């Protein structure tokens, strides 16, 4: 009898240790609410590993969503896009972070669809702590797309699975020439 009880406790412990998700999930915690994102570690391993290391290092404590692209705040000749951008860009005493090797959408197979999270960058390999979330489908950010002159696209690495209503609420906040006025504070980003 005693052995059976121990066996049941052991099995219950193993069940409790089972991973909740096959891919890592994180939560972007804002005053407006939480945004849960599944990170595609199986498709974009370098980008996800770097992003998780920034989370674990506490880089995103007191970060912000500071930028918005919408149809009204882009030049008339630009390929239009809709997104919110966040990170530590406006944070004082931000750490110096090395760029991540660029994983294109051609390599990963992750397209910039509604709710996809991606790294912001200038040149390939310069993306690090700044990220954006797509509002609607944004094929111009994929490999070969027209939203970056080098046509290498941006490194998509996950998708919002809960809280797109929060993303859209942030997207609709007041802005001045593409920057939220005031920025939307990110209290923290945590692993789930």
Automatic annotation (TrEMBL):
Pfam families: Pro_isomerase. It comes from Segetibacter aerophilus. InterPro entries: Cyclophilin-like_dom_sf (IPR029000), Cyclophilin-type_PPIase_dom (IPR002130), Cyclophilin_A-like (IPR044666). This is Peptidyl-prolyl cis-trans isomerase. GO terms for molecular function: peptidyl-prolyl cis-trans isomerase activity. Residues 29-192 form the PPIase cyclophilin-type domain. SUPFAM superfamilies: Cyclophilin-like. Belongs to the cyclophilin-type PPIase family. PPIases accelerate the folding of proteins. It catalyzes the cis-trans isomerization of proline imidic peptide bonds in oligopeptides. Keywords: Isomerase, Rotamase. Its EC number is 5.2.1.8. It comes from the Bacteria. It catalyses: [protein]-peptidylproline (omega=180) = [protein]-peptidylproline (omega=0).
């Amino acid at each position: 009898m005693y052995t059976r009880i121990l066996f049941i406790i052991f099995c219950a412990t193993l069940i409790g240790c089972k991973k909740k998700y096959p891919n890592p999930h994180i939560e972007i915690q804002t005053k407006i609410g939480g945004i849960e994102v599944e990170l595609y570690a199986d498709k974009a391993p370098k980008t996800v590993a770097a992003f998780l290391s920034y989370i674990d290092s506490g880089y995103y404590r007191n970060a912000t969503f500071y930028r918005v692209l919408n149809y009204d705040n882009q030049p008339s000749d630009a390929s239009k896009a809709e997104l919110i951008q966040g990170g530590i860009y406006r944070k004082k005493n931000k750490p110096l972070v090395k760029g991540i090797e660029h994983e294109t959408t051609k390599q990963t197979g992750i397209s910039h669809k509604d709710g996809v999270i991606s790294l912001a960058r200038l040149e390939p390999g310069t993306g690090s702590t700044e990220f954006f979330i797509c509002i609607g489908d944004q094929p111009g950010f994929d490999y070969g797309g027209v939203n970056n002159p080098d046509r290498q696209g941006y490194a998509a690495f996950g998708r919002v699975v809960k809280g797109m209503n929060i993303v859209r609420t942030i997207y609709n906040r007041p802005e001045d020439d593409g920057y939220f006025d005031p920025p939307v504070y990110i209290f923290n980003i945590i692993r789930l």
